[in-house]
Amino acid sequence: MKLNNKTDMSEKLAHAEILPLLLRLTIPVTVAQLVNAAYSIVDRMYIGRMPGVGTTALSGLGLTFPIIMMITAFSSLIGMGGAPLASIRLGAGDKKEAQLYLGNAFSMLLIIGAVLTVVCIIWKDPMLMAFGASEATLPYASDYLGVYLVGTVFVQLALGLNSFINAQGYAGMGMATVVIGAVLNVVLDPIFIYVFDMGIVGAAVATVISQFVSAIWVVGFLCSKKSKLNITLRDMRLDWNIVKSSCALGVSMFTFLINESIVVIALNRLLRQYGGTAGDLHIASMAILSSVGQIFFMPLKGIVQGAQPIISYNMGARNYPRIRQTIHYARICSITCAVVMWAAMVFLPKYIALAFTTDQELIRMTVVTMRLMYSTVFVLGMQMVNQNSFIAMGNTRYSFFFGILRKVLLLLPLAFILPIFTGVWGIYAAEAISNLISVVVTHIVFTKYLNRLKLEFA
């Protein structure tokens, strides 16, 4: 069914041709995800090139990554949990309850942001030391994080509430939320770092300002008449059932991001343990690999987030053929992106490393570690669609399990076991092996789940 541009988004989610609709929703979200990665990645690029101290400062910045991911995880717990449920309720024709999910999300994000700010500021240095900071890297990590934490509430609102914009099908507006902040960050970084000579602190100041602007933008849209769902004082009163169901569904993405934090902490400590005198250099290399990993996952996240409103809406409408067709096209897009990015990481690692540092020793190490760690990452194109479709369909149990499978149940044990036999290189190989196992397990379970859903909706 062909619909014109003026057709209501709900009608498009219910009746428009799947592939054009998926591309329309996916491309802006994918661009937004890539631009979103610029917040931390641009910081690392500028900091890694600081004269004289670039490699040490980059290692320090890498140590802040677990805490930043933890902050992001809480925004996803609320946003990625509540937004699909709001979309499902819209698909079922219940706008009143959909509004409650948005209002409760706004309140929860404010509360969580305030608590995280206080807790993280108090425990900042002890956490960084526990995560593998050395005497050389701690000052850089502490200075950056101390400023970054001031903007925690802004991060919660910008990321958490933007999911509700995307869930309504307004992918272009969701993209604008991210692009505005990220472009501002790119512009302000060199000004604060070099022109004002603030170094790593300047990078953090630029990031906080950018996050503030993004937060204002997304809240403004959700309070406007352009949005089908609006933030109102009435809906901000916390409803335990709404909060519980949002958190139950969002726990999968929350777990995925917390897993990223736990894994980075563990890997940094293992790199220091097995890396010997090159421990800080390995941590700097891992900081680059983490940035590259962020870039890799952003298009895949954009694709699954573009597919999410279609899947969620039609889950509420009990329309299995549209759900199945959406997953099919999402897989094609995701696998294609994964293969292209895998090829870049395997065949062009030197040029990627050059974007972050001019240290030749660090570049030589990163060429080896990137090829080893990301040698099987192409399989995650299938994994991301399967795993996140559980979230879009509101399946709490499976979304949680597969949220912890690859990182917690597979990668961490392998990262502790393999170095005993292979030395420091086993830490990087653990990622490659866990990718292969997780995609097979997830696909088998997901296929069986879809077959049951087909019978249920028949």
Automatic annotation (TrEMBL):
List the membrane topology term(s).
Multi-pass membrane protein
Spell out where the chain crosses the membrane. 21-42, 62-88, 100-124, 144-165, 172-194, 200-224, 245-271, 283-307, 328-348, 368-386, 398-421, 427-446
Phosphoprotein among the record's keywords?
no
Record keywords, A-Z: Antibiotic resistance, Cell membrane, Membrane, Transmembrane, Transmembrane helix, Transport
Keyword Ubl conjugation in record:
no
Q: Which GO terms describe its molecular function?
A: antiporter activity; xenobiotic transmembrane transporter activity
- Which processes are annotated in GO (biological process)? response to antibiotic
CC annotations in GO? plasma membrane
Pfam families (UniProt xref): MatE
The record's subcellular location field reads: Cell membrane
Extract the InterPro entries matched here: MATE_fam (IPR002528), MATE_MepA-like (IPR045070), MATE_MepA_subfamily (IPR051327), MdtK-like (IPR048279)
Q: Which family does it belong to?
A: Belongs to the multi antimicrobial extrusion (MATE) (TC 2.A.66.1) family. MepA subfamily.
Listed name of the protein: Multidrug export protein MepA
- Which species expresses this protein natively? Hydrogenoanaerobacterium saccharovorans
